[in-house]
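SEQUENCE-TO-STRUCTURE ENTRY
===========================
What this section holds: a protein sequence and its matching fold, both as plain text.
Tokens: labelled as protein backbone structure tokens, with as many entries as the chain has residues.
Question of interest: how does this chain fold, as expressed in backbone structure tokens?
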Amino acid sequence: MLLFAPIKIALKIVSMLVSALVVYVIVTAVQVGLAANAAASSTTAAPSASAIILLVPTQTTETPTPDLLGRLQETLALYQSNVGSQIDLVDSNASTLPQVQLGSSPYVPSGGTSAANQWLTTHGIPISLIANIYTGSTFSSFTSIAQRVGSSSRVVIVADALEALWASHVANSAGLRNVIIYA
């Protein structure tokens, strides 16, 4: 009997740790859900801004994935509501040297940026109002935007709930006042 006592103690400890982990995951999921619902989720909550920034998700096709399509629809709604007149597509997946591409000049976009450009222009946004920004990192992309629109300018960032907090901190670090719109 004394031989099995350490095994029973170890099993109790493991079961308590697993229980704590399950509770942690549930509480975290509830907090993320509540934060997403409490934050701006439509054009009614977005103030006017110098630019609308769409964080382009990674994808390999030229057809928008459901994730990108949701972001594009939200971006279009913001543009049509006159929230911002310039749309910046931030893409760290493009295969080229760091640069900013305004309008239609040569560049090698990722599948997501190509799909976004095509979708937005098909839905009535002039290509001259879409800036494709691919500098290799989100911070340098936001810094580039801050230089163009002015430091301390307000921007609206269209992202998903997983990117939102991180993107907001990066934008603040680059000198941009921002509002996150979840898509």
In short: The beta strands are 51-55, 87-90, 99-102, 130-134, 154-159, 177-182.
